[in-house]
Amino acid sequence: MLVDSPPEQRAETAPAPPTRRAIRAFGLLASAGVLVLVALASIAVGAKALPLDQVWHGLFHDTGTYADVVVGDRISRTVLGLLVGAALGLSGAVLQALTRNPLADPGLLGINAGASAAVVTAITYFGVTSLSGYVWFAFLGAAAVGALVWFLGGSRGATPVRLALAGTAISAALYGYLQAVMITDDAALGKMRFWTVGSLASATDTTIEQVLPFLVVGTVVALVLARPLNAMAMGDDTARALGADLNRTRALSMAAATVLCGAATAACGPIVFVGLMVPHVVRSFTGPDLRWILPYATVLSPVLLLGADVVGRLVARPAELQVGIVTAVLGGPLFIFLVRRRRTAQL
Q1: Coil, strand or helix: which one is 159?
Q2: What value does the CA radius of gyration of the chain take, rounded to a whole number of Å?
Q3: pLDDT tens figures, 7-49
Q4: Cα separation of 263 and 258, whole Å?
Q5: What DSSP state is assigned to residue 1?
Q6: Segment 272-330, tens digit of pLDDT
Q7: Phi and psi at residue 66, in whole multiples of 5°?
Q8: Is the peptide bond before 318 cis (omega within 30 degrees of 0)?
Q9: Residues 162, 154: contact at Cβ < 8 Å?
Q10: DSSP 8-state symbol, 106
Q11: What's the pTM?
């Protein structure tokens, strides 16, 4: 006999009134407009100041001048930021839904660290130099650490704090390994010292072409999973009654998060807190329906990432602060706030 779900769970996936759906749709359209503005700012603003007329010329006329080259580099950097931001936001939202853990995030659960450790190992000890080669190591490292954190956190009995603590402990150990490798290998230190903090500065057209297929596949799978993940949020028994295949949903969700996080980390290094911050902000005005959370996260996560990248270019002119450092500074206080909330940090 099926047990009726609590009213608040039934409300999570109930059809929204037409007015509310219209507001959500308008908000998504407005978010896309904000994303366009931030992308334009990412192209126009940099550590090296360029007049707007030169930026405009570089957008439409590549004549090989210094300004045109700088604008071309910024375009590649912006496109990679759009892709990586969407990937991190989606993977965070999917992991939060899959684990029913509002603190789940590729960085907090150690998935970024696992991908990073695998990539550094591939570059240092196996001589892998191309992104197409070490992206597979990133996937393997991300999947292995994700499974380990889930096991150490208590598997089906996992709580938000246990998972966060397990992820933090594993991340600390893996980042210690990364530092040991770079300190003892000067060549590795030169190659990896910027990559390991998370940076878009080395973006190229080749980088984008190599990670784009993985990010597209991961994004499509994540978006398709919105309905079954909604069903799982109501409890396993109710989800089965609604026709959801729990094992397939869990496997595809973990695969999508791993592909998205692995490709993003391989392209620009570990960037933390994007997958934590954006889904929380989105959920505050969309409600718990993943059919809205996932599209919003896809649009607003690049806003955060590119905005942080622009801030990093401005605060340290003529040098720049890596985007991974900026997102960590922004996300640290938020994480502390969320852990202290009784509703999200119950043992």
Answers
A1: coil
A2: 20
A3: 444 444 555 667 888 899 999 999 999 999 999 999 998 878 8
A4: 8
A5: -
A6: 889 988 998 898 888 889 999 999 999 999 999 999 999 999 988 888 889 999 998 88
A7: -60, -45
A8: yes
A9: yes
A10: T
A11: 0.85
Q: Give the distance from CA 3 to its chain's centroid.
A: 36
Write out the two tokens for 317: 């002119």
Whether the per-residue pLDDT at 165 is higher than 60: the answer is: yes
Q: Helices 66-99 and 246-268 meet at what angle, rounded to 10?
A: 150
Give the type of residue at 181: V
Contact assessment for residue 268 and residue 202, using Cβ atoms and an 8 Å cutoff? yes
Residue bearing tokens 């550590």: 47
- Contact call for residues 200 and 84 (beta carbons, < 8 A): yes
Identify which of 297, 225, 258 has the alpha carbon closest to the alpha carbon of residue 109.
Answer: 258
- Token pair of 327, please? 């997102």
Instruction: Quickly count helices (H) and strands (E) in the chain.
Output: 15, 0
What is d(CA 83, CA 165) in angstroms, rounded to the nearest whole number? 29
Give CA–CA dist 165/335, Å, rounded. 12
Residue 179 C-alpha from the chain's centroid: 23
CA distance 171 to 179: 12
Say what angle helices 274-286 and 18-44 make with each other, to 10 degrees.
150
CA 134 to chain centre: 19
Residues in the chain: 347
Q: Is the pLDDT of residue 229 over 60?
A: yes
d(CA 325, CA 330): 9
Which pLDDT value is given to residue 347? 44
Distance CA(244)–CA(197), nearest Å, equals 39
CA distances 251 to 94, 95, 208, 214, 226, Å, are: 12, 12, 27, 17, 14
Euclidean distance between CA atoms 346 and 11, whole angstroms: 23
Alpha carbon distance 288, 274 (integer Å):
18
pLDDT in tens, 180-228: 887 887 766 666 766 777 889 888 898 899 899 999 999 999 999 999 9
At residue 342 the predicted structure's pLDDT band, cuts being 50, 70 and 90, is very low
